[in-house]
Structures are given as structure tokens and as C-alpha cells.
Design goal:
Elements (H helix, E strand, L loop, with lengths): L1 E3 L5 H17 L4 E5 L4 H12 L3 E6 L6 E6 L4
Parallel strand pairs: 1-2
Antiparallel strand pairs: 2-4, 3-4
Helix pairs in contact: 1-2
């Protein structure tokens, strides 16, 4: 699943991230790619991911600094 937050203001991006990650978790996705762009949201995103109860791991993609891969907890 891909979550594209590029172009959102920070607060709206955070809301979209929370909603879309919860949706992905409830629908059995194991990973998501999250596109933040390279602005303020990119710098804040690791904190968002770390604080979300459904996210177990967050890594930046190697070829695009404005993109992250998150791994979700197992549904159970």
C-alpha cells in the first residue's frame, strides 16, 4: 500500500497518515510506503511512525529521502 502525503500541510498530513495506517492494518497489509516529500513533514515523520501503535518499524528508502517504508504490527 502507498500513502502519499506530499503536498499536505503538516497537521492534515499527520491526520491522513493515522487514518491510512489504521486502514492498512485493519485490511491486513504488512508494509506501506509513505511519501512525505523533502520538507518539514519528512523531518517529523519518523516521530509519527514511532508513536503510532500499529507501526513496528520505519526506515527511509535508500534512493528517495522523502519516502519511508513502514512495517505494521501483526493483526491479532
Amino acid at each position: 500500500m502507498r500513502i502519499d502525503l506530499h503536498g499536505y500541510h503538516i497537521h492534515k498530513g499527520w491526520q491522513q497518515f493515522n487514518q491510512r495506517v489504521t486502514y492498512a492494518y485493519l485490511n491486513g497489509h504488512k508494509t506501506c510506503e509513505v511519501i512525505t516529500g523533502q520538507g518539514d513533514m519528512m523531518r517529523e515523520f519518523p516521530v509519527w511512525a514511532h508513536n503510532h501503535p500499529r507501526v513496528r518499524e520505519c526506515t527511509r528508502t535508500p534512493n528517495n529521502p522523502g519516502s519511508f517504508i513502514i512495517k505494521l504490527n501483526k493483526k491479532g
